[in-house]
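User: I'm curious what two different proteins look like when written out as structure tokens. Can you demonstrate?

Assistant: Sure. I'll show them one after the other, since each token string lines up with its own sequence. Here's the first protein:
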Amino acid sequence: RNIRFNLFPMYETGVNNETVLQTTINYIGMATEKLAAKGYEFGPADIYPPYTPNPLLVVLTMTGAIALFVYVVQMLIPMPKHTQLVAFFGISLVSIVVFIVTSGTLITQIWALSSAVMAPVGAMIRLMEEWRRYDSARPLGATKSTVLALFYLVIAALFAAIGGMYIASLLGNTKFFMEFAIFRGVKLTFVLPVILVMIAYLQRFPLWKGR
């Protein structure tokens, strides 16, 4: 990768009776010599080639993120299949229209954020459904419990990885690579899944019923 001048730290005070500017220049010079000894080449930085994914593929990925959203929501708020289909097609239609009539930056960020939240939540809820299959009437030994725990961990990780793939697909373009557009809601992706998983847990294992 190109090494740019603005990536070097600037000295606040000079050393060896030199000015701050001269100290910084000397530091960059020494770094350049050491890098050149390792075979690095120097010259003007290249222009980052623009990359814009196929809009149809973005829309397809966005509908997948919407399907994930509806799937996880119906596990938190039970709804009949008819309602799920209406919600999926309705939200998809609105999102596609917004994507077409705007630059698409905001709507893709919204569904990337949704994927980052819903994928791990969906993974945990599926695990809870498995936990409900095993109650005190069916005790498990230490070996079987360990094997099941490792198996569920792998499945949950793969399920949660879907969210990462959706994010990469929706935000994989030059605007986000070069930070012309910034993905908002990073902190929310850490807090909201915990809250939703807590709600799902209390729905399935209510503490007020002696569990």
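Here's a second, unrelated protein for contrast:
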Amino acid sequence: MCILTASVSLKFKSLFLTFPFPPLLVWFRAVRIKVPEVDRAKTDARSILAVVLSKTEDGFYKLGTKTGILKQLYAKSEFSVLKESFSTKEDVPAVEISLHQIAIKQSLGSGQGFRKCDCNSKFTTNRCAYRRNQLLCNSKCHQSLDCTNK
């Protein structure tokens, strides 16, 4: 009896090694996609919640969020399946949008990060990006240097 369970266990392990990411079953709909560090600020969410809309013949998945349908197709290894479903296919608008644009729309800040002007001296002209855009410099811009745009 013990040899039988060991052989069955070994068979399942070999199947798992052959297929580390088994195909997504129909009843698992909610998934989490990791947002690359380049597309988000440090304070933004590291992942986006999505819904599986369809599966192609090649084994890739079309995903959608409450913001829109993601432009690219995803392999099963690029997202993780959630146990609970938070929305349905009907909640996804029929607009195609990139992951970068979704990250910007769900961002708390200005998208990819915090702004700073990186000026090295006191600029009284519009050479300073902040002055040109009629923004005030902050402590991250110049550190200990004096600034006329505060």
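A detail about the second structure: The chain has two domains: 30-106, 115-149.
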